[in-house]
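@here heads up, posting the sequence + SMILES for the pyridoxal-5'-phosphate run so it's all in one place. Ping me if the SMILES looks off, I pulled it from an old spreadsheet.
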Amino acid sequence: MKDLSIEIFKDMGITPEIYEYGESIWNSLKDRFEEVDAVSEYNQIKVIQAMQKNKVSEACLIGTTGYGYNDLGRETLERVYADIFQTQDALVRPQITCGTHALALALMSNLRPGDELLSPVGKPYDTLEEVIGIRPSKGSLKEYGISYRQVDLLPDGSFDFENIKKALNSKTKMVTIQRSKGYQTRPTLSVQRIGELIAFIKGIRPDVICMVDNCYGEFTQTKEPSEVGADLVVGSLIKNPGGGLAPIGGYLAGKKECIENAAYRLTSPGIGKEVGASLYALSAFYQGLFLAPSVTANALKAAIFAANIYENLGFSVVPDGREPRYDIIQAVTFGNPEGVIAFCQGIQQAAPVDGYVTPEPWDMPGYDSPVIMAAGAFVSGSSIELSADGPVRPPYSVYFQGGLTWQHGKFGIIKTLQKLVEKGIIIKDFDRRNL
Ligand SMILES: *Cc1c(COP(=O)(O)O)cnc(C)c1O
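bot reply: prediction finished. Complex structure tokens:
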């Protein structure tokens, strides 16, 4: 079997030495992968349990058109989400266009003029800057008279409790906590740490709404932030919980009142959750959710593999090869533009879709340096599928995530290494005896 693998990898441009290097790294990770599988098994059963409890039936997969009254599949799916996240209610819709939209919806529907939003974990995800009005933007919270305050994490990544306490004031209505580090260098927050932060905040202001930006974090642990005190968790269906199959969508799960507010904002006051045809998306939403624990595990394995491949070659990687993981993002720092470009080209060349194209850096609107992106996805822009991107500027880091199957993730990473070696960016004899 091994000879056969070496052969097909060779057909795909991977030298036997690099293949063997990948195997040796993989062999060192088996215990780690077993832990990932154990979390995935737990979450798989959790999803099945929620589906059975809510009597998901064939009729739920069909969907509605027009107003979408009495959409059995939509209503059942929202109860399934509420059970998985252990919340009173949920809003799971194809009309929520992306993660940013889901987060904006949660904020704009639960805040009123004169209220204040607090981020106690530093700067939020880039796209939220315009939602909040940190960067001036049409329709931002700021334009509606909603103010914003931020407390950064301390240099060692811990919470600045003293300043969080000071920042909480009579105007504070909502707190936003981003679970994933996103494209920053701070650590990703575990569900346990999020719970500690929320307990501290609620100890001072029990009435404040604690929202968690759950993007990239779903199913990486056995608990979700809503089980440790979050009033609202929010995310994108073209990341973890869509399992690679959801073609669009976002979700909010949380307290009844928070979800009600969001529904009235998404559709209209007076109408709320009662409308919103699910069209033809339900089957993919259900099946994607069913696959999500396993797909998330595959993405985690790819990230752990990448960390170990490159750490072992002396590159700086975040998280490192051994740390526990609470999201699916892996950063690797190459220190030169060629490394970032070669990595992204390797990911692209491993893709099932658009595998023949060569990504190049370009001046993307909103960025202050050229950005290179690699994605060959079945769902456009889906970052639960194997993808990578990096701004071409110091320290020349690339951010890598996804992989619907572990085998694809592994192939993608090996392909990046092959590219880096071919371009002379990594000079090493990959003979096994030299490892
Ligand atoms: C992806 C992401 C978002 C935004 O989601 P989009 O679907 O890209 O709009 C927000 N927050 C975090 C942490 C994310 O990873």
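MO: The longest strand covers residues 172-178.
MO: One more: The domain at 63-280 is CATH 3.40.640.10 (Aspartate Aminotransferase; domain 2).
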